[in-house]
Amino acid sequence: MAGSSSCMNQTGKTGPVEAVLRFPSAVQRDARITKWFAEPDYELRRMAEPWWERMRACGADVREVLHDNYPTACVEDAPFAYVRAFSAHANVGFFYGAFLGDRAGILEGSGRRMRHVKLRWGSG
User: Fold this and answer.
1) pLDDT above 70 (res 28)
2) Predicted local confidence at residue 89, as pLDDT
3) How far is Cα 102 from Cα 68, in angstroms, rounded to an integer?
4) 124 pLDDT exceeds 80?
5) Which of 8-17, 46-55, 105-114, 115-124 has the lowest mean pLDDT?
6) Model pTM score
7) DSSP string for residues in the chain
8) Predicted local confidence at residue 19, as pLDDT
9) With 0-12 CB in 10 A as exposed, 13-18 as middle and 19+ as buried, what is 96?
């Protein structure tokens, strides 16, 4: 096909290059994310906040966006991680987590790309 390209994927096989998800609305600091963490009655959001701050500190090119109502960290406009809060746990997720080494076996998920770690009170 004209204009297509290929590269080696995680299995070592050559295949078509997939488009990278992009969020052009990502900014250096999104005020909606500050409000998201500050909402009352969401203690599990506060559990995820230190992980979010680590994502923010990954480099000068890190941007952020509130995507699907969850903080999402990007390298420029390409997402790499997110945090979510549920009623019993919080997630720290990675958009391309399936490609990360996970010797400890802590990443969860079975999709083609995304993986997450569940955070719960009292676990560690």
Assistant:
1) yes
2) 94
3) 27
4) no
5) 8-17
6) 0.81
7) -TT--EEE-TTS-EEEPPPPP--TT-BSS-HHHHHHHH-TT-HHHHHHHHHHHHHHTT-TTEEEEEETTEEEEEETTEEEEEEEE-SS-EEEEETTGGGS--TT---B--SSS-EEEEE-TT--
8) 78
9) middle
Q: Between vectors from CA 53 to CA 51 and to CA 59, what angle results, nearest 5°?
A: 115
Residue whose tokens read 């969850």: 70
Contact 73, 88 (CB under 8 A): no
Q: What is the pLDDT of residues 42-52, one digit of tens each?
A: 889 999 999 99
CB hemisphere CA count around 67 (13 angstroms): 22
Q: What contacts 49, CB < 8 A, 6 or more positions away?
A: 37, 83
Q: How far apart are CA 113 and CA 68, in angstroms?
A: 18
Q: Measuring CA to CA, which residue among 86, 95, 114, 117 is closest to residue 26?
A: 95
Start-to-end C-alpha separation, the chain: 50
